[in-house]
Amino acid sequence: MLDVSELVEVALGRAAPEEAAARASARYAPPSAAPAVVVWNVCRHCCLRCPHCYASATLNPSPYDLTTEEGRALIERLAAAGVHVLILSGGEPLLRHDIVALAAHARAVGLRPVVSTSGVPLDARMAAALAAAGVGYVGVSLDGLPPFNDSYRGMVGAFDRAAAGLACASSAGMRVGVRMTVTRRNTAHVAPLIAWAVACGVNRFYLSHLLYAGRGFRMAGEDLRPEESRALLAEVFETAERLILHDAAIRLVTGGNDSDGPCLLTWIEARHGREAAGRVEAVLRRRGGNSAGEGILAIDHRGRVHPDQFFTACVLGDVRRQTFAEVLGHPLLEALRHREVLLQGRCGACAYASICRGSHRERALARSGSLWGPDPACVMTDSEIGASFEPVTASLRRTRQEASA
Predict the structure, then answer these.
(1) Domains of the chain: which residue ranges?
(2) Interval 330-385: pLDDT, tens
(3) Running DSSP on this structure, what letter comes out for residue 189?
(4) How much is the pTM?
(5) Are 299 and 283 in contact (CB under 8 A)?
C-alpha cells in the first residue's frame, strides 16, 4: 500500500520523512522472521458476486473453513511469532458466526485486528460488537456509485447497505475506509466516489489496481493499460494534494502496483522540484516496495499460507499440518527476500528496483508464466526506468549497484 497523501505531505514540507515511519510502524517495520501483517480469509462464502474477487468467493459456506478452535489456536501462534496486525477478510468475514469472538481473541493476545468487508452485513449491532472486541479499522469495498456498484457486485441495494455500514462503524468509534478496484469498466467512477467518501467523512480511500487472481484472472483483459493507469494516477495525486491543501482528513492510498511509488516520485519532481522529490525518495527507500512473503503473508479459509492474499498460485504451507516456523522456512520466502537479484526483463534492469522491488510477482506469473519476469502493469516508461532522471534516479541506481557489490 502506498500512502499517497502521506508522501505528498512530505513533498510539501508538511511532514518530515521520519514521521511517516512513526505513523505506520507495521508498514515501515524492519525485516524480521515473521511478517508484520497477516491477512486471514476466515471464510470463502460471500453475499456478493464481484467479478474481480481474488478469493473466487462462493454463495454457500465451505466445509473446509478453519473451525473456531483452529482459528483461536492460529491467532495465538501468530501473536507468538511476532505478527502485529491481523486483517480478517473473506469471502465476507462478517458472515462467520464467531467473527467477533475471533477479533476479540486477537486483541486479547496482542494483535491489532482490522476487518475487510463488503459492508453489506455491517449494521449498528455488528459495528458496536466489533468496536467492543478491539477492532479499530473497518475497510469496505465499493466499485463505483449506484446503480453501477450494485450491478457490478451482484446485489440490488449493496451500495446503500455498505454506506450505512460505514456510518455505523464510524459512529461506533472505528476508523473507516473505502477500497475500490479499478478496471476499464469503472474508471469514470473513481473521482465521484472519492468525492462521496470525502463528503461522508471516510478516513481512507484505497484505490487498488487489478490483480490477476481468483476471478480477477479472467478480467486481465479489462485491466487498464499502463498509460491509462498513469493518467488516472496523476489525477489521484493531484486530488490528494488538493485535499491536503484544504485540510481534508481523508487519506488517499493506492495498492496492487508498486510502480505507483516511482510514478509518484517522478510526478513530485516535475511538480515540486528535486529537493521535494529527495524527501519523498527517503521515505520510499525505507518503505522498500512490494513485501509479499516478507512484511505480509496470507492464510486462506482452508489454512493454506500464501505470500500475500493475491499470490494464491504459490502455497507456502498449511497451518493445519505445520507449525508457523515450518511455514516461514519455505524456500520461496528466502527467494523473495532477495528478489531484486532474481528479477528479469524490465524489472531486472529497472533503476527503481529498490523502491518497487518488481511489484506483484503473481501478476508476472499469471501473464508470462515466469515468477521473476516483468510485471505487465508497470506504469513507468522504458526511458524512466533507465538512468534519465538526475539526481533521484541516478542515486537509486548507485544504491542498487552498491548493494549488489
Answers:
(1) 2-339
(2) 999 999 999 999 999 999 999 999 999 999 999 999 999 999 999 999 999 999 99
(3) G
(4) 0.93
(5) no
